[in-house]
């Protein structure tokens, strides 16, 4: 029993004791209100029983049915000659009626109120003293008033409870909305930091690797790489400061006002100082609020930063005004990629929107004797360059302007399935790897890969093999097995022999040619011939594509042993 229940019980005991005291006084002290000649002893017993029941009225409301029943039994026991009491008989009935109307469930309340009304009706029928018009008007008026008060209190409390529930629900929904807003803001900050820090750190890692590769043979190129690292770090720090500034709460007491359209010329002059040609025109901006002016300032600031970062044709045009159509993002002309030719065995095309990454990769690959036949700064240019230059391997960034690396990979392989694409990104997010391999990429590398591993990966992919880390491969195959594509069956008209099915299953399990030969008692050259035949038969680019097809078509299931 909690503290509140104990307090209510104490209150009810006190009220019941007071009513009992008044009733006993009424029985044993001659009051004119006492009618009838029944036994005082029976009346006393009835008063005490009713007092006990009233003391439990909120702990166990249903016991109040016993109050009118007690008086009915009292009349029966005295042969209809019981005493008619006001304090001892009527008050317990009235309190029981009030409790039934206000407290308890619907059935309990109906039982209590119905028993009280039934008892009073019986009393009116069989007790002559209660049949006078004034008596009937009085006790029925009082009882109905008490009943309506109890119902009103019940309705009022119910409304208060409902209002409290609605307020609690509204508060919970507001709190959940705030949490969602926080989560969305965190995701936005994470994307912002990914764009700033992820790409910048990737550039610095690539340039550092390139510098380490050429420092002995070409100190000038190494110095250029180190200068690129310094510049990239400085730009990244400035961008981080900008993000921090955007995340800070506005200080109403700040002495320096928030930047607006009036300060955009300062940004223009800074941009022109870096060699960027900028045209800016502002129409009537007098009706723009401070918040909108701040937004315009940030848009221009970010636009100029993007142009400096991605564009070769260093020209930007910006127009601001009060119309909503003037708030569109600026157009940026990205680096369409220069075509540089050389003459080595493995021909590589670099596709990345960051020029410093391309420069670093070029240094690493050319140092290893590979031929970088061209560069492209976006996916669309990469597709065109791949068709024109016919590289053996395409190093393809995933996130780029104009066209992303996933779509570019798909288009390159549609044009020439013999091409090999090695996907590059800053983070090995499963959805990115999944999409890249689904599009036909033969490998997947992080941009911070060591120079030796980069060269090794290009060599592996150029030989028609797949280049994926074992952990990534396991996640990929599980993903393909759990969510097959709509066209996951074998190509139409393709039938595999029993031996080919065995080889497909072993390839899907990551076995090398030598390991497959040992399991099936075949020579490595024979296995190689089978694999080449399967690549052509299934229209697959490499062994990973064979494994994916095996899982998607049901030839192999996760956890199934193939040997």
From TrEMBL:
Modified residues (4-aspartylphosphate): 397
Cited InterPro entries: CheY-like_superfamily, NreC/VraR/RcsB-like_REC, Sig_transdc_His_kin_sub3_dim/P, Sig_transdc_resp-reg_C-effctor, Sig_transdc_resp-reg_receiver, Tscrpt_reg_LuxR_C, WalR-like
Pfam families assigned to the protein according to its UniProt record, in alphabetical order: GerE (PF00196), HisKA_3 (PF07730), Response_reg (PF00072)
GO terms assigned for molecular function: DNA binding; phosphorelay sensor kinase activity; protein dimerization activity
Any one GO biological process: regulation of DNA-templated transcription
Domain Response regulatory: 347-462
GO cellular component: membrane
Domain spans labelled HTH luxR-type: 489-554
Highest taxon of the lineage: Bacteria
Record keywords, A-Z: DNA-binding, Membrane, Phosphoprotein, Transcription, Transcription regulation, Transmembrane, Transmembrane helix
Residue spans crossing the bilayer: 12-31, 37-55, 62-78, 84-101, 108-126, 138-156
Region (Disordered): 312-333
Annotated PANTHER family: TRANSCRIPTIONAL REGULATORY PROTEIN NARL-RELATED, TWO-COMPONENT RESPONSE REGULATOR
Protein name: Response regulator
Organism: Agromyces kandeliae
């Amino acid at each position: 029993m909690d503290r509140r229940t104990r307090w209510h019980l104490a209150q009810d005991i006190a009220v019941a004791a007071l009513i009992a005291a008044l009733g006993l006084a009424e029985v044993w002290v001659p009051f004119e209100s006492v009618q009838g000649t029944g036994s005082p002893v029976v009346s006393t017993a009835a008063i005490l029983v009713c007092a006990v029941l009233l003391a439990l009225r909120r702990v166990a409301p249903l016991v109040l049915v016993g109050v009118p029943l007690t008086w009915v039994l009292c009349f029966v026991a005295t042969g209809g000659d019981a005493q008619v009491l006001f304090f001892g008989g009527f008050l317990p009935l009235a309190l029981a009626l009030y409790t039934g109307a206000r407290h308890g469930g619907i059935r309990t309340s109906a039982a209590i109120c119905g028993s009280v009304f039934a008892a009073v009706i019986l009393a009116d029928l069989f007790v002559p003293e209660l049949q006078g018009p004034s008596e009937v008007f009085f006790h029925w008026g009082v009882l109905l008033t008490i009943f309506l008060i109890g119902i009103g209190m019940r309705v009022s409390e119910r409304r208060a409870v409902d209002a409290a529930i609605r307020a609690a629900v509204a508060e919970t929904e507001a709190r959940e909305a705030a949490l969602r807003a926080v989560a969305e803001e965190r995701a936005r900050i994470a994307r912002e930091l990914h764009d700033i820090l992820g790409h910048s750190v990737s550039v610095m890692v690539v340039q550092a690797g390139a510098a380490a590769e050429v420092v002995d043979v070409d100190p000038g190129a190494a110095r250029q790489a180190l200068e690129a690292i310094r510049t990239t770090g400085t730009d990244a720090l400035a961008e981080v400061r900008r993000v921090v500034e955007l995340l800070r709460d506005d200080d109403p007491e700040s002495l320096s006002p928030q930047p607006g359209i009036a300060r955009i010329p300062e940004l223009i002059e800074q941009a022109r100082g870096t060699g960027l040609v900028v045209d800016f025109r502002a129409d009537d901006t007098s009706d723009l609020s401070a918040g909108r002016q701040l937004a315009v300032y940030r848009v221009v600031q970010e636009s100029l930063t993007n142009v400096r970062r991605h564009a070769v044709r260093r020209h930007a045009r910006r127009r601001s005004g009060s119309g909503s159509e003037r708030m569109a993002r600026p157009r940026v002309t990205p680096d369409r990629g220069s075509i540089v030719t050389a003459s080595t065995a493995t021909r590589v095309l670099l596709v990345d929107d960051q020029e410093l990454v391309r420069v670093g990769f070029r240094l690493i690959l050319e140092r290893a004797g590979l031929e970088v036949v061209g560069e492209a700064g976006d996916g669309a240019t990469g597709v065109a360059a791949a068709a024109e230059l016919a590289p053996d391997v395409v190093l393809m960034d995933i996130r780029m302007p104009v066209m992303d690396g996933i779509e570019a990979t798909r288009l390159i392989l549609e044009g020439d399935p013999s091409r090999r694409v090695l996907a590059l990104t800053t983070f090995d997010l499963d959805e990115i790897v999944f999409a890249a391999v689904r599009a036909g990429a033969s490998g997947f590398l992080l941009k911070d890969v060591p120079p030796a591993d980069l060269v090794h990966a290009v060599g592996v992919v150029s030989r028609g093999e797949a280049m994926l880390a074992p952990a990534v491969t396991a996640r990929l195959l599980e993903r393909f097995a759990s969510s097959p594509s709509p066209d996951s069956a074998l190509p139409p008209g393709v039938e595999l022999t029993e031996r080919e099915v065995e080889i497909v299953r072993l390839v899907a399990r990551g076995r090398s040619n030598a390991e497959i030969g040992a399991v099936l008692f075949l020579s490595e050259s024979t296995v190689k011939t089978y694999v080449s035949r399967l690549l052509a038969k299934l229209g697959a680019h490499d062994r990973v594509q064979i494994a994916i097809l095996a899982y998607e078509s049901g030839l192999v299931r996760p956890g199934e042993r193939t040997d």
